[in-house]
């Protein structure tokens, strides 16, 4: 049996017909064409599939699409504003916090939520905040630098 769901994704109301077992990650990628959300492990370990659900980071590979009917989602495609990349995105680019980029959408969503909650995190808080996201390329130093740089940019821009 299929269910008709409506989601507000990146500010736009979207509809999909999904079976009850459809994962949110598959719904975003295959039903809505938003392939910026990456799927690595598919069982909640790597954090690549992280999106923001009503502003809170969730693993879309562990979430059934039907359970978020009517809710608001932000994917990596929705982080940039009309004026271009968000401060978190710019900081990742500036600090070379990505190599292959596979993990990056999940990190960007996680860090966006982290800095909204704690605009001036300590090193320890940054490490804890990103501990649910795995990167196979970077060794994390530049990611940590990027989180601090993003905090600076957000403060400078008064966000
Ligand atoms: S794909 Fe969801 S946590 Fe790895
Ligand atoms: S940049 Fe390649 S997995 Fe993180």
Protein model, in words:
The protein is an alpha+beta fold and 159 residues long. It has 2 domains: 2-78, Beta-grasp domain (Ubiquitin-like (UB roll), Roll), CATH 3.10.20.30; 87-158, DNA polymerase, domain 1. The protein has 5 helices and 5 strands, in the order ββαβββαααα. A 5-stranded mixed sheet has the order 2-1-5-3-4, with helices on both faces. Helix 2 crosses helix 5 (141-156). The chain starts with a strand and ends with a helix. The model has no long low-confidence stretch (mean pLDDT 97). One FE2/S2 (inorganic) cluster is lined by residues 39-42, 44-49, 59, 61. Its EC number is 1.2.7.4.
Quick synopsis:
With 159 residues, the chain is α+β, with helices and mostly antiparallel strands. The chain folds into 2 domains: 2-78, Beta-grasp domain (Ubiquitin-like (UB roll)); 87-158, DNA polymerase, domain 1. It is built from 5 helices and 5 strands.
